[in-house]
């Protein structure tokens, strides 16, 4: 298994993984990743910024995520709680695992790689948010030591549960 930055030529392999996750959310009536988001332009922008990462097995992309060191504007205000840290952080977005590779620890591996990146860059924490009905993601985060910190609202107003893990 190789963890690496995604390149523009990887987008064609990432998109079907994202689309399968979007379909799964629809089937579970979870209003996350709706209305075509994230789309190919979003993924290309992630790659252009150098924030898109993939896991590959035998050269095939089996999982992807975005790991960003940029401040997440929607994290400035948190409701019904508070962040553990006010220092710099990495933020995880758009984590997705190929359908036939689920339940093999790949999402866990992406979390661990993100935490390692934070430690290696002397960034004290990792933050992430998820839909309140996305119970598998919530369970994944809690099982890896992420702490529920409160509620944030996306720019368009959608509610998300916010988590943080101190890694330093």
Q: On the 0-100 scale, what is the average pLDDT?
A: 95
CATH topology: Aminopeptidase
Strand order of the largest sheet: 1-2-3-4-5-7-6
The helix-strand sequence is: EHHEEEHEHEE
DSSP strand content:
25-35%
Architecture per CATH nomenclature, i.e. the level-2 architecture = 3-Layer(aba) Sandwich
Number of strands: 7
Distance between the termini: 25 Å
How many domains make up the 3D coordinates?
1
Overall structural class, as computed from helix and strand content, comes to alpha+beta
Low-confidence stretches: none
Tell me roughly what share of residues is in helical segments: 25-40%
Domain N-acetyltransferase: 1-168
Pfam family, one: Acetyltransf_1
InterPro entries: Acyl_CoA_acyltransferase (IPR016181), Bact_Acetyltransf (IPR050832), GNAT_dom (IPR000182)
Keywords: Acyltransferase, Transferase
Describe this protein's structure.
It is a single chain. The protein has 4 helices and 7 strands. The protein is of the alpha+beta class. The protein has one domain: Aminopeptidase. A 7-stranded mixed β-sheet has the order 1-2-3-4-5-7-6. Helix 1 crosses helix 2. It starts with a strand and ends with a strand. The model has no long low-confidence stretch (mean pLDDT 95). This is GNAT family N-acetyltransferase. Keywords: Acyltransferase, Transferase. It comes from Salimicrobium humidisoli. It holds the Pfam family Acetyltransf_1.
């Amino acid at each position: 298994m190789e963890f690496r930055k995604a390149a523009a030529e990887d987008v064609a392999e990432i998109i079907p993984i994202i689309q399968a996750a979007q379909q799964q959310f629809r089937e579970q009536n979870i209003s996350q990743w709706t209305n075509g988001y994230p789309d190919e332009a979003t993924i290309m922008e992630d790659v252009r910024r150098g924030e898109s990462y993939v896991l590959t097995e035998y050269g095939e992309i089996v999982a992807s995520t975005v790991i960003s060191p940029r401040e997440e504007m929607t994290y400035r205000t948190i409701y019904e709680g508070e962040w553990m840290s006010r220092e710099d952080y990495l933020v995880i977005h758009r984590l997705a695992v190929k359908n036939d590779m689920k339940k093999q620890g790949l999402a866990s591996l992406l979390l661990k790689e993100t935490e390692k990146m934070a430690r290696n860059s002397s960034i004290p924490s990792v933050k992430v948010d998820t839909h309140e009905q996305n119970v598998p993601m919530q369970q994944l985060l809690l099982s890896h030591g992420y702490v529920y910190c409160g509620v944030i609202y996306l720019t368009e107003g959608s509610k998300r549960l916010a988590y943080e893990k101190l890694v330093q």
